[in-house]
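Project standup — Tuesday

K.O.: blocked on the structure for the chain from last sprint. Re-posting the sequence here as requested.
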Amino acid sequence: MSDMDVLIVGGGPIGIACGLEAKKKGLSYLIVEKGPIVNSLFNYPVNMQFFSSSERLEIADIPFISKEAKPKRNEALEYYRRIVTSNKLKIHLFEKITGIRKEGDLFLVTSDKANYTASNVIVATGFYDLPNRMDVPGEDLPKVSHYYKDPHFYASQKLAVIGASNSAVDAALECWRKGAEVTLVIRGPQVGERVKYWVRPDILNRIEEGSIKAYFNSTVKEIRENQLILDSPEGDVSLDNDFVLALTGYMPNFEFLQKIGIHLSDDPKKLPEYNPDTMETNVEGLYLAGVICGGMETHKWFIENSRVHATLIVENILETKKAGISS
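H.V.: unblocked you, prediction finished:
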């Protein structure tokens, strides 16, 4: 493809918002997504309900109408897909970006299918691709998954769910209601404070009545074919076990960010360097948008507070382009 004004890496809600803004302002652009439209949302649990209301998930002032105040995964998929198709956004799906290199005033962008050149690049890849591993023996067994999809799969099985966040609590409750024997393993002293307010009482009640067994202040020590070994305050605990859902969170692809020249902070937060007024990184013409801006602080940015990134970035690109023409 010939030189374009901006190439957008990632076709999630914020990547789509950037594409819409670029199109509206007359910039040549392309969105490249390694999976389907809004790949991360597609890989969410089938019954997931958002914490945010539908209007807070809207992009580009396009109304999002849902049956309930807080929409579910399938409604979000329909909303964002219709935005892409009805606006005829230029998007390449199932294409993975493998490299970004700047030469002179242009970025040379390579994928597993093509090569591109662009004056600017926006990275809006989120953080859902790389799970936080437990790094324990047996973590790579087939019965272990870091992603949860459908509770039916675990019916009549002994299931251990690792984690205390929304994803872990939702999975524990849904699988229990489909007939799984659920054990919840939580590193801290209680269920996470950020668990959805209408769900938290449910899990607390299920734990209190003994329907779901919970081990607090406990971690996984080893995963075996038919057992799970926990390190608990009472010492090692051995549980009969068929499946493990290790819902311990996810992280951005820091290796990719560093490879393309973006500086990261030296502390554990690994915050990428960017100007909050323009979203431009330490590499001129290379921008960040969406949740990837938070480094390991994955609860800092959401659709609702990062959709403004699209406007900030495109305005800066236009100003830079105008300054270049006038000079």
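K.O.: great, moving the ticket to review. Residues 120 and 285 are 5 Å apart (CA to CA). The chain has eight helices and 17 strands.
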